[in-house]
Amino acid sequence: MEPMEGKYNIKAISNMLGIQPGTLRAWERRYNIVHPERNSAGHRLYTEKDAAVLKWILDKTSSGFTVSQAVGLLDKFEEIDSMAAHPMEVDHTFALAEEILGHLLRFREAEAQEALNRAFSMFTLEKVTTDILGTLLVKVGTLWEMDQITIAHEHYITSFLRTKIGSIMHSYNVKGFLPKIVTAAGPNENHELGLLFFTLYLKRKGFEVIYLGVGIPEEDLIQVMGEIDSSIFFTSCTLLENLEPSLEFITELETLHPHLSIGMGGHAVQYMDVDKTKEYSRFLVGSDASEWDEWISNVLYKKTENRKN
Q1: Structural domains in the chain?
Q2: Which tens digit of pLDDT belongs to each residue from 262-280?
Q3: pTM: predicted TM-score of the whole model, two decimal places
Q4: What is the residue-averaged pLDDT of the chain?
Q5: What per-residue string of b and e applies to 4-34 under the rule 16 or more CB within 10 Å gives b?
Q6: 196, 233, 253, 277: least CB-packed within 10 angstroms?
Q7: Are 269 and 280 in contact (CB under 8 A)?
C-alpha cells in the first residue's frame, strides 16, 4: 500500500498516537496540518504521511514546544516523507509513556490505567514492558534524582508501576535450566525502581527470581542467602550516602558465601572513582541491557566451567 493512500480511520490514529479524536479534529481545523481523505461514508482516512506529521508534532510538544511553534517548524522538517515511506519505524510508545506519566504526576490512576490498557491493546507485552514501563521507570528515577518531583510523587508512581510489573513478571515462563536469582535493595535503601527494572529484565530472560525488595536488614539477607538454593544475588544502590554500606555488605556476603555470584547496580554506582570501580569491578553489572547481558553471560560461563572442574 502506498504511503499516500488513506488507510487509518480516526480511532486507529487516536490509538496509535495516544491523541484524543477531538484533539485531532481541533488540530486539523486550527492548524491545517493534515488533510485526511474521506471514504464513501464521510469518515476520515489518514495516510502514513499524516501519521508521521502528527507523530512529529506530538514529539515536539512533548519536548516543550507549543503546537503552533511545532507547526511553524514543520515546513523545515525534511524527514517526514522518509518516515512515511517506512511506517514501521514510527514508534508511538513514547507518547503513551508520556501520557501515563502525566496522569500519574497528577495522581490520576484511572486515566493512567486507561492509557496503559490502550498500550496493551496496541503493542506486544514485550514492547509495552520495555518501551513504556521501562521508560517510565527510568524517567521517574531521573526526575526524582533531579529534585523535579517529590518523594510523594515517586512513591505513588512506584507503587503503580510495581503493581503492573509484578503482574507482568508472573506471565513469563521460567527456564528450569537457569539458576535461581535473589534480588534485594542495599542497606538503608528505600527506592526500588532500579531494582524492579533489573528484576524485570531477569524475568524476561527466563530466570526464576526471588524479589525481596527494600527494607531487609543485612543480617536477614545474609541468613536468607544461606537458606535459599540460589547461586546469584543482585543488589541496587540509588543514594550515594548508601554506597559504602552497600559495598561493605556485598564484600561480607562474598566472604560468607564464596560460591555466590554477586552483582550490584544503581545510580550511586556511577559516582565511584576509578580506583574503587576497579576494586569492585567483579560486582558491577553495568547500566544498560547490553552490559547486563555481558555480566549474566560471564556469570553463567563461570558456573559452567566450575561444574566441569
Answers
A1: 10-89 (1.10.1660.10), 93-169 (1.10.1240.10), 181-308 (3.40.50.280)
A2: 999 988 888 888 999 999 9
A3: 0.63
A4: 83
A5: eebbbebeebbbbbbbeeeebeebbeeeebb
A6: 277
A7: no
